[in-house]
Structure formats: C-alpha cells, structure tokens
Model the fold of this input.
Amino acid sequence: MSYPYQIKSFEGYKEAYEQSVKNPEGFWADIASHFHWRRRWGSVLNWNFTEPKIEWFKGAKLNITENCLDRHLDDAGNRPAIIWEPNDPEEHHRVITYKDLYLKVCQFANVLKNNGVKKGDRVCIYMGMIPELAIAVLACARIGAIHSVVFGGFSAQSIADRLYDAQAEYIITCDGAYRGAKDIPLKSVIDDALIGNRTVKRVIVATRTRTAVSMIKGRDVWWEDEIKKVETLGMTDCPAEEMDAEDPLFILYTSGSTGKPKGVVHACAGYMIYTNYTFVNVFNYQPGEIHFCTADIGWITGHSYIVYGPLSAGGTSLMFEGVPTWPDAGRFWDIIDKYKVNILYTAPTAIRSLMGFGLGPLQGKKLDSLRILGTVGEPINEEAWHWYDEHIGKRKCPIVDTWWQTETGGVLISNLAGITPAKPSWATLPMPGVQPLLVDENGHEIPDDAADEHGIISGNLCIKAPWPSTIRTTYGDHERCRKNYFSTYPNLYFTGDGALRDADGNYRITGRVDDVLNVSGHRIGTAEVENAINMHAGVVESAVVGYPHDIKGQGIYAYVIYNGTHGDETLTRKDILQTVTRIIGAIAKPDKIQFVSGLPKTRSGKIMRRILRKIAEGETANLGDTTTLLDPGIVEEIKNGKL
Ligand code: WT7
Done:
C-alpha cells in the first residue's frame, strides 16, 4: 500500500488545506479514488446544516471490509493485521495476518447470516478486548448489519436502554473479560439486561474466561459451535454486501448534556475515507509500522484507530486486552519493547497515572522502536506532555495532540506527526477539509482583532462545513441530532467545547462548555449521573458538577439532598455509589458526595451550577452574583460543608 495523499511537508499541508477549502469536492474525490468501489459516486457532497442533511459520495456502492481486508490480500496477505496482547503477560499472544482476518471475518459473517442477521439489522456487541471483538465488528460490516458496540464497563441497565433505543435483535458477547486482576462476567450482565427485553432473538457467546454462564435454550449459542456449523455447511467465503455510500455503518452511544445517551450514526463511505485519511496523515503512518492505540474498541477511538483506520490502510494494529498498571506500571513499556511498537496513541489520563509511579517502571525499557506519540480524549497539561516527550519519546518522537469527538468520527484538529509543528497542550491546526471557527454566545464569529496581548482569541468551537465523517443522525431521532449539534448556532456544527486560537491559527481546546463531564477521557453527562443518584430511594434531589482532578482530568462532585433513614453517612454514600454503578456503570461513580439541605436555585427553580462548580473547585471567595437566589443562605451552608 502506498498513500499518494500522505502529506510530506508543512508546505504540503498548507497546499492540501487550501485545496480542501477552495474545492472540497475535488479534494475528497481525489482521495476517494484510491479506494475500492463497486460503483463510483454520482455527486461528492450534498449538504445543509439546517435539517441537517449530509451526504458524501452519493450513489456510490462499496463495502468497507473489502477496503479493510480483500484489497490487501494480494500484496500483504501475510502481513499482521492485528497483533493481540492478552491481559496476562504469561499467556500467548496472537498474530492475525490479513489472510487470517479475512477468513475469520467471512466465517463469522456466515455465522451471523446463519443466525438470521440481515442487512440493516442492529447488532449489539458487548465484549472484552479480544480479537473476536474486531472480528465481530467487521463481520457485521461485511453483511451490512449495523453494529452498536457497548463498552464492557457499562451496566445491565445501560445495555438495556441501548438495546431498546436501537431495537437490536442480536447480541454478541463473551462469557467474561479479563481486565487486570479482575474477571468481569459479561454474559451475566447481558442476562440482566435482557430481563423484560422483547426484541433480542439471539445471543452469541464467545469463550474467554470460562466462567460459568447460563445459556438459555433457543436464545443463547456459543460462538465456537456456530463456527463449526458453518464449516459443516461448507460456508467459507462470504461475499461482501454491496452498501450505499450513505448506508449506516454503525451506531455508537455517547452522553450529552441532557437525558439518555444518544446513538451517533456514521455512514459507510465518508467514515471510511476520513478515518483512513486521518490515520495516514496524523500519525504519518508508514507501511509495516506497528500502531498501538490503547483505547477500548467500545469507544470511538478504538473504532477509528484500532479497527477501521489502520486496517483500511493495510496497517498493523496492536490490540491490548489489559490495563496499563497490571501486573505492574511497566506494562505499556514492556509491550512496546516486545513488539517494537512504532506509534503509541493513548490518553492523558493514562500518562498522568503512569507518571505517578515515577521512573522505576521505565528501568531497563528500551522504547527505541517508538517514532511517534499521540494523545486523545481530553486536554493534556504541559507537565504530562513534557513527561511523555522526555521519558517515553526521549525527545525524538513528535507528539500529536488529536482533538475530535464521537460525532466527528475522526480527528479534526491535530498536528501531523513530524510534518506540522507541535505546541505543548495545543491541538494546533485543523485537518484539511475542516473549517473551525470560534463564536461568542450569540453565534457571532470572534474576529482576530479581538485578540488579547498574546494574540489569542477565545470562544465556542464550531465547524463551518461538513467533513466526510460528520455525524449523520442520532439513531431513531433526527430532530435530536439537529437540536443538539446544529441549532445552537444556525448553519454551524457546534462541538460543545470552548477553545482558544493563537495568531498562527493554532487551537487549544479548553474543555466542555455544556453540562458534559470528561472523566479520564470518558464523556459523562451531569444529568445522567443526577438521574442515577436520584434513583436511590432516600435521595430527594441532586446536582452534579465536575472539578479538577490530578489524574482523571475531571472528577465528579455530587451535592445530594437526602432524607432517607437508613444507616450512617458513610454507608449512605456507598449505597449511592452502588446505585450509580447499577444504573450507569462504575465509570460514572462520583468521587465526592456532599450532603446538603438545599441547592442554590433561582426563583424560577433553576439550579445555579456555576456556584456549585466554583465551590467544588475550591474557589469559595468569588462566587459571583448570588442575589437572584431563592435562598442565598444555602450557599454558606454548602461552602462550609465542602469536601
Ligand atoms: C470530547 C469528545 C475523540 C475520541 C475520544 C473522546 C474532549 C477529545 C481532546 C483533545 C482536548 C479533547 C473534548 C471533546 N477531547 N480530544 N485532544 N484535547 N479535549 O471522544 O467521548 O466523544 O469526547 O473529548 O471535550 O468534545 P468523546
């Protein structure tokens, strides 16, 4: 594979950027011409942000798996597609070549067909990080079924909500998953999620932990048995389903500022082109290199930069089942040396947590295969950036700070490794085809001459025009998509983030400006956590805000009005945490719970989060205007009780 569209110099970036803005259709058509199509497109782009309607490569026919698998077989069939490192370093790793992966995907696609799965059906995937997860995802894509991967840390209730929202009829799961010293009973969580479910017809269970599971007759089947069945039937190859460019490829649920998580929908062609383009350019990927993205495939980062980006580029993707700190905090470094990893892509949270172990775990680790480092998911503080640069990259690896979102499908703002300059804690420049702008509360673009003495302007980050992997809709509710992303500022996509821009056009993302938290790089809506807390029998009302956390970036601070009678405060706190774990999952557990007798509300009953946020941040001196509060006295009480 060669990548004729790979940018080679800063000049080249500037040219590509200019082209992409002057003639977006020509620019993307050129790139798209390097992919495998069953039929070419009629028009490159049709769009408006009012409905919104976004169509890329309309009329084209393709299957993304032919681009990720079939087209590499002749030249790179024996090249590793996926290298899998198990949780336990004592267990054998697996190397899956393109030829192997092709066969396994076809085989499992036949299993899906044999179990009644058809094009357009929704398949929920709830698995640990084993190769079968990637195989399941690709097998869905092969037959045109829409995958909805749910991260293995979500609770039964969260799965039930997602199954219902997507009206999913099929589930693929494992008996259990290993994560560090833990052994998570995934199938048993699925069983709980299915109590009262009326849509799911079939659950396919892959073996991993051999923990005891209940297999329900007529509903549950073993992955391995089903493979044997299709083998017996002689079903080996599986022709790829011909998909329309705009057919949905997958749904991925993510949190917003209100209500239940929404199902972000991505479309086949645009998502394929954009994840490939950004993979090749952001990481300056060279054929044969080993790319290690430490995310879970349950998040968009894993979808785009473990599975689809690297595989569509014929790359080698390293997939790791475990956690960075088990059996010890040298786990990542051992993996890098073991496989001679060239590109490491991880989250600032992981870097900060590993920094906390000091330099001991780096003793004796070479790390000399590393060429490029990347971060994703949250702002990176300068201290962590320099530690990463000095101790991991040994000051010779460019670091890319990649800003993007579940809704954007791929990286929108980032430096290009070794090609465009890095600036610590700045995501820097937009990718070709991406036109960001900063606006004030009223949607007016902030002009360059509004800059401060350092030449910096600040505002809410929007994007002017679609890029190929723009969110197409929120599953089953297009109006929600419009309201959430395209109505705050007319004719703009609103990201929900605040940002700065310097005189050179570099962007620094400062964090969410809506009621969404970013805890260890994971998105959690405050309303979602509040709803979960409020489910607890003794809770009257609650308000949740974020506060700065040394490792997680943001921690969750909950103010709770409690009138229950059961037990003492410590026990009640535990009960509330247990409730949140049941309703959402352990990732949404508040770090701090403060019991209060009331919440600061305006006369119209709106909670003044600004005040609660300041108190949680420890900034109690300057709380701003509190005169509009119904009961200003409550602020004193809350201040005095701060944890
Ligand atoms: C939110 C999106 C993108 C995949 C992982 C998270 C924050 C993401 C950065 C970055 C500062 C970042 C934003 C964004 N974010 N990358 N490089 N610098 N902030 O995807 O769960 O959809 O969350 O993560 O606040 O809106 P997500």
